[in-house]
Amino acid sequence: MSQRAMLEGVAFFAVPGTVLVVEDDPAILELITFQLDKAGYRVIAATDGREALDRFRASHPDLILLDLMLPTIDGLEVCRRIRRVSSVPIIMVTARGQEDERILGLQTGADDYITKPFSPRELVARVEAVLRRTQAAGAAEAALVAGDLVLDRRRRRVTVAGREVELTPKEFDLLALLMAHQGEALERDTLLEHVWGYAYAGGTRTVDVHIRRLRQKIGDDPQNPRYIETVHGIGYRFREQEL
User: Fold this and answer.
1) Closest among 157, 142, 223, 146 to 179, alpha carbons compared
2) pLDDT tier, 102 (very low <50, low <70, confident <90, very high otherwise)
3) φ, ψ (nearest 5 deg) of residue 194
4) Residue 174 has pLDDT above 70, yes or no
5) What is the pLDDT of residues 190-225, one digit of tens each?
6) Reading across the β-sheet that carries 42-46, which strands appear in turn?
7) How confident is the model over 149-165, as pLDDT tens digits?
8) How far apart are CA 132 and CA 4, in angstroms?
9) Measured distance CA(102)–CA(113) in Å, rounded
């Protein structure tokens, strides 16, 4: 999440941040982009579900405005996939205003829901309100700690026992994904999808190669792992650390 300055009790951010807008209607996309840009946000646009996932991985937005009806992958499935790896705030935007649709979106992992047509002022107010609610949680999630291994997501910095470890972008993202799901066995395909992207043509062997290099850099013995365990026939798991 982008760094922001916020005074307690004040309803604005000094640096609003980045919003990923996922909308296949050009007119609505233009309207949303204009309003958010005017409010000081940096806007990244996607017009279908697959592009949305790619832009999400590349840009690490502060918030996502996500249309429900999308080409290639629908909004609910996009939300499900993002929720597997991130707690980024998501506001569902759709023409459907029925109660069951709102409930389904919220159950899938959306933080809020706005229906078309909407007023520009309401849209910006919803974005600001959701960002305010998640600000404190976002600060707590900025660092992932496991024993003497610390991963700082904001600075993209990793240290082991106070010593900085130089990782490639993919190694960093791979470690962050594993640490965020401590104790969970993640399949190689899942790691490949969320770190390299759905359009990546390489095989799961790429994951194994990066895991081997990552272990070497953080000083993890694959025969007696302290951090990254191999789950045979499945993938890898970041070991739960003793308190």
Assistant:
1) 146
2) confident
3) -85, -15
4) yes
5) 898 888 875 566 678 899 999 999 999 999 998 999
6) 42-46, 18-22, 63-67, 90-94, 112-115
7) 999 887 889 999 999 99
8) 11
9) 7
- Give the separation between CA 160 and CA 152, rounded to whole angstroms: 12
Tell whether pTM > 0.90: no
What would the 3-class secondary structure string for the chain be?
A: CCCCCCCCCCCCCCCCCEEEEECCCHHHHHHHHHHHHHCCCEEEEECCHHHHHHHHHHHCCCEEEEECCCCCCCHHHHHHHHHCCCCCCEEEEECCCCHHHHHHHHHHCCCEEEECCCCHHHHHHHHHHHHHHHHHHHHHCCEEEECCEEEECCCCEEEECCEEECCCHHHHHHHHHHHHCCCCEEEHHHHHHHHHCCCCCCCCHHHHHHHHHHHHHHCCCCCCCCCEEEECCCEEEECCCCC
| C-alpha separations of 207 from 59, 131, 228, 233 in Å | 22, 34, 13, 14
Residues in the chain: 243
For 204, the token pair is 């799961």
Q: Token pair for residue 168? A: 């490639």
Whole-number Cα distances in Å, 76 to 29, 68, 71, 93, 213:
19, 6, 12, 11, 35
Among residues 58, 57, 61, 96, which one has the least CA distance to residue 75?
A: 96
User: Tokens 């909308």 belong to which residue?
Assistant: 23
